[in-house]
Specification:
Elements: H1 9-14, E1 22-25, E2 30-33, E3 36-37, H2 38-44, H3 47-56, H4 62-73, H5 82-88, H6 95-109, H7 119-145, H8 158-167, H9 178-191, H10 198-207, H11 213-224, H12 232-245, H13 250-258, H14 279-293, H15 300-313, H16 316-320, H17 328-338, H18 345-366
The structure holds s-citryldethia Coenzyme A.
S-citryldethia Coenzyme A binds next to loops.
Length: about 400
Amino acid sequence: DTGFVTYDPGFVNTAACTSAITYIDGDAGILRYRGYPIEQLAEKSSFIEVSYLLMYGELPTAAQLTEFSDRLRVHTLLHEDMRRFFEGFPRDAHPMSVLSASVSALGTFYQDSLDPFDHDQVEISTVRLLAKLPTIASYAYKKSIGQPLLYPDNSLGYVENYLRMTFGVPATAYEIDPVMAKALDLLLVLHADHEQNCSTSAVRLVGSAHASLFASVSSGVNALSGPLHGGANEAVLEMLEKIRLDGGDVAAFVRKVKAREDGIKLMGFGHRVYKNYDPRAAIVKGMAQEVLGRMAKPDPLLDIAMQLEEIALADDFFVSRKLYPNVDFYTGLIYKAMGFPPKMFTVLFALGRLPGWIAQWREMIGDSATKIGRPRQVYTGAPVRDFIPLDQR
Ligand code: SDX
């Protein structure tokens, strides 16, 4: 009745760690942050409130939420010397590479917040990272399109500030679209944490060596950039676009996936843990239909995506392998409708996952039982043998 679950010893022995942050039941399609169902948080909470919940363990009171938001607001600006950092990147640099390099570089500009065992330094690095990542993300985008960087406007909310820095220009006032801001806030909530996924495991592994928060999260950004992980939302759009350019024959594409032609996969489908519908995908699908329904010119890729889902969910190849849409299947369509280019989709995933990475790093660092991550292996190489001198090889 407490909602706690008991694991069989076999599971506990193979688990990477214990954690009190996020609970997933892959078979039942359940996702909870600190015990709260994702469906309730998606409907009633905000990204800043969920960030607080993940990192501090409880929903904030009104006073705590105001104090936390104010603390973030005064740290949105980057060290001025970091502007030169962006001048050094080529214009066509992938923004995820810019993001991981810049997060790592924060450790050089803010050397007073690197000690993982100093409470005040952990707090200030937490706030700095959460406050500055949207600024870094917007600079990466502005650099790629040759537009001037915009300083943060701290009279705006977290998401609104990011949208203005990304899409605003100095010449004209930027008008926030409240529907877009709310949709983006919800997408960030849905991505905020996800137990021990690949990028979070990377953050924990690097942090277990007592590396700083900036160094650990930079490794998480790199892991997330992989197309099998966070890079999937960008890969889904490329896949849908390719189907469209090939004449929109969805059934023909599904046949290629089933025949494993060129090793192609149905991007945005499948999951290491969810062997049922990803609860986040269901929420994102509803939002995609709402956000795209507002567009003057409907996006043909939405129809292709929905056809793809319908065909796959009726095909035993996918159903027998328990392949269902995951969080990445529809998100790219929404980001595209918001005006983001595909190269920025995984950056948006990173903005959402940041509080989860921070919360997991803090939990791991705060657990005195944590040992340095050192997985073992099963050796499959040559048996012992004597050295062969060069003239005898
Ligand atoms: C995320 O872990 C997380 O929590 C991640 C994440 C998060 O919030 O952090 O949820 C975010 O990364 C979501 C996943 C995004 N990636 C993609 O959408 C890329 C496409 N999907 C896959 O590559 C794949 O499904 C994985 C990587 C997600 C999972 O791969 P697995 O663990 O190998 O899948 P599986 O063991 O369940 O595969 C079973 C079978 C295999 O075929 P057989 O050997 O049994 O014949 O299904 C096949 C796989 O080859 N398969 C697919 C497929 N995914 C698995 N076949 C076609 N298309 C796919 N998408």
